[in-house]
């Protein structure tokens, strides 16, 4: 894979398939159903549930074409210490040359380095106009992510 082949734009969309956020990343590894990416936050510094997300914080991100979630491992821009894991319930990602696209389905789990976690955006999920199939898949993904978190397997998933 050439250097240019490693570069991708990561595109988060809402349920109306409108682009919400776009940022560049670099593919570290990929297999038949997943892509592992390194990216750097392109947002302004902001407090977020007890941590601060900052411009250029490093994120290792695993996207799946056959699962209804993705997982980010967020590291501090200054000393690379682990800040948190962020798990998104999403549609399966779509991979195309130079692009990873997914639809955000609101539910998120923020996991602190000590293993404590918060489930975020439950109200937002309830207000989404999802078909029955997507709603069931999202709820199953949330349960799967809770199991992964509780069994402390997030680091393993990102190293596979």
Describe it for me?
This protein is an alpha+beta fold and 160 residues long. It has one domain (3-155): FomD-like (FomD barrel-like fold, Beta Barrel), CATH 2.40.380. Helices cover 22% and strands 47% of the residues. The chain has four helices and eleven strands; from the N terminus they run αβββββββββββααα. The protein has helices at 3-6, 122-127, 132-150, 154-159; strands at residues 7-13, 19-30, 34-40, 46-48, 51-53, 58-64, 69-75, 82-90, 94-96, 99-111, 117-120. It has a seven-stranded mixed β-barrel. The protein has a two-stranded antiparallel ribbon with strand order 4-5. A hairpin with a 5-residue loop joins strand 10 and strand 11 (117-120). The longest helix has 19 residues, at 132-150. It is globular and about 40 Å long. The two termini are 19 Å apart. The model has no long low-confidence stretch (mean pLDDT 94).
Topology of this structure?
Layout lengths: L2 H4 E7 L5 E12 L3 E7 L5 E3 L2 E3 L4 E7 L4 E7 L6 E9 L3 E3 L2 E13 L5 E4 L1 H6 L4 H19 L3 H6 L1
Parallel strand pairs: 1-10
Antiparallel strand pairs: 1-2, 2-3, 3-6, 4-5, 6-7, 7-8, 8-10, 9-10, 10-11
């Amino acid at each position: 894979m050439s250097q240019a082949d490693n570069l991708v734009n990561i595109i988060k969309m809402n349920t109306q398939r409108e682009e919400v956020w776009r940022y560049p990343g670099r593919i570290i590894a990929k297999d038949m159903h997943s892509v592992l990416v390194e990216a750097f936050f392109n947002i302004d510094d902001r407090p977020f549930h007890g941590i601060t997300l900052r411009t250029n914080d490093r994120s290792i991100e695993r996207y799946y074409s056959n699962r209804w979630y993705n997982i980010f491992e967020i590291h501090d821009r200054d000393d690379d210490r682990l800040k948190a894991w962020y798990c998104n319930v999403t549609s399966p990602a779509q991979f195309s040359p130079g692009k990873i696209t997914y639809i955000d389905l609101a539910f998120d789990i923020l996991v602190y380095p000590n293993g404590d976690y918060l489930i975020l955006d439950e109200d937002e999920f309830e207000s989404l106009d999802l078909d029955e199939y997507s709603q069931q898949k999202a709820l199953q993904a949330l349960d799967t992510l809770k199991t992964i978190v509780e069994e402390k397997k997030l680091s393993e998933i990102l190293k596979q």
